[in-house]
Amino acid sequence: MTYLETAAEFYREVAQTPQVGLCCVQSTPLQLPGLKVPLAMQEMNYGCGTTVHPTELANQPTVLYVGVGGGLEALQFAYFSRRPGAVIAVEPVEAMREAATRNLEIAAQENPWFDPSFVQIYAGDAFNLPVADAAVDVVAQNCLFNIFEPEDLTRALKEAYRVLKPGGRLQMSDPIATRSIPAHLQQDERLRAMCLSGALTYQDYTQLIVNAGFGQVEIRARRPYRLLDTLTYNLEENLLLESLDSVSFKVSIPEDGACIFTGKTAIYAGTESLFDDGAGHLLQRGIPAAVCDKTAAKLAALKPTEIIVTDSTWHYDGGGCC
Ligand SMILES: C[S@@+](CC[C@H](N)C(=O)[O-])C[C@H]1O[C@@H](n2cnc3c(N)ncnc32)[C@H](O)[C@@H]1O
């Protein structure tokens, strides 16, 4: 069996016998007016954060959702688009497709605005998405890509890039590791399937996103996720996993490198009313301006005594320097 087959087998099991809390995080579930999430769907919430960002889902976007699970986020995306075929869900595990279909039928009974035709579920996987090039506004995946080994993750990211329209967004939530996960855990296929041992470091994860062609990455949230403790996981030191919510844009990569926004701002504290770096960044004296990490580093190096750069908040959702 390959590790991908082990993962499919694991999700067949948890489609048939839900594991409440398999991937859950300490955050308030998204509540939307007029949206009732069926209990069976809540019990199959296998996401480790959220990929649904309500302020960014205007104009009924077409969403391709990879790894449908119990259908929770497919339903949440459908809430914003409300038209047949608005959400295209791709799922290789038959039992999971059946569970999601059942859950969405219950959702239709509990939500007068929802029709099951809004979500179309296809057999398929992250490496061969069943849509044409540049066809969708959003690709979303929650707690799936961390399962993939780096070469497969690269394939999945490139496939997401292919199907996105120019300017389209890849919305993801995944565990990341605060240091490299030792090989004996990475090779444990069941732990990998459970989203506990395939996670990359923040640096490696974001680098692979950029390598796939995404010119701008925005971090929406970063929280503690799970502790791999010394005793249970045969480690010399405890290893903290975090959960990272991100949105990556299909825009070209600037010549001096991709823009990664982590919530930093730059504040000009010099004697003039305005500072212009000549590269498109105007800082008004005393007013924080949101900047990507690349620009933050450049500005700090340019004027070490006059420009203050604030720390990453790990929550960024607008404005920017690029
Ligand atoms: C951790 S669950 C997350 C489910 C859902 N995103 C959620 O938030 O509840 C991973 C999902 O991806 C599916 N999956 C497994 N391997 C896959 C692959 N190669 N391509 C696409 N989906 C896959 C699993 O069957 C499962 O439904």
UniProtKB/TrEMBL annotation:
Keywords (alphabetical) are: Methyltransferase, Transferase
Q: List the transmembrane segments.
A: none
Q: Which residues form the Methyltransferase type domain?
A: 64-170
CDD domains xrefs = AdoMet_MTases
Pfam families reported in the protein's UniProt record: Methyltransf_11 (PF08241)
Q: Does the keyword Mitochondrion apply?
A: no
Gene3D superfamilies, sorted:
Vaccinia Virus protein VP39 (3.40.50.150)
NCBIfam families annotated for this entry? Answer: AsSugarArsM (NF038099)
Name this protein carries in UniProt = Arsenosugar biosynthesis arsenite methyltransferase ArsM
